[in-house]
Write a structure and sequence with these properties.
The chain is mainly alpha-helical. The protein has helices at about 20-35, 50-65, 70-75, 85-100, 125-135, 150-160, 160-170; strands spanning about 40-50, 75-80, 105-115. The longest helix is centred in the middle third of the chain and has 17 residues, at about 85-100.
């Protein structure tokens, strides 16, 4: 799998890496996080499957060759967790992002490790709604030439769910 360099994406960017298992995801995610670790003005946020996030951030710590406990204590690194209730999950994403902003971080490197159709995550249709709210509703990414509206992609290419178009029109 050739994913390119994590440094090639302008901020803000929303990148989805479809993968099978941690091995396919880890190198790209670690490169992305390492860049932020070296920049004190950037925060790091791991979200989703807690055991996989912990392993990823432990690998980041080992690769950096230093204890990251001070970064966790200061709130610069936060590990959140998914919730089967989409509203609680949305709050579990927004609250840390607001805390990062309040602490003055200029950029948040967010790695969301998502599982589809499992008990600890919302059902796929609710999760797509959550993605839409987080990524598209604010409008910041619409100006990024690299960004493709994912609900359009899913509707036209993958899922062919007609309600996505109605949801997009209502929230857009």
């Amino acid at each position: 799998m050739n994913t390119g360099s994590a440094t090639a994406f302008p901020a803000p960017s929303h990148i989805a890496l479809l993968h099978r298992g941690d091995a396919e995801m880890q190198d790209v995610a670690l490169e992305f996080l390492r860049i932020g670790l070296d920049r004190p003005s950037e925060a790091l946020f791991g979200f989703g499957d807690p055991s996989r996030s912990k392993r990823l951030f432990r690998a980041l710590e080992l690769g950096a060759g230093r204890d990251l406990s001070p970064e966790y204590r200061s709130g610069r690194i936060v590990l959140g967790r998914a919730d089967p209730d989409v509203d609680r999950m949305l709050e579990g994403v927004i609250a840390p992002l607001e805390q990062f902003r309040a602490k003055g971080f200029t950029l948040v490197r967010f790695v969301g490790i998502v599982n589809w159709n499992v008990p600890d995550f919302p059902p796929p249709e609710d999760f797509l709604w959550l993605e839409f709210k987080l990524v598209v509703s604010g409008g910041a990414l619409r100006q990024n030439p690299e960004f493709v509206l994912f609900e359009r992609y899913f509707h036209e290419r993958l899922l062919r769910l007609p309600w996505l178009e109605a949801e997009s029109a209502r929230d857009g």
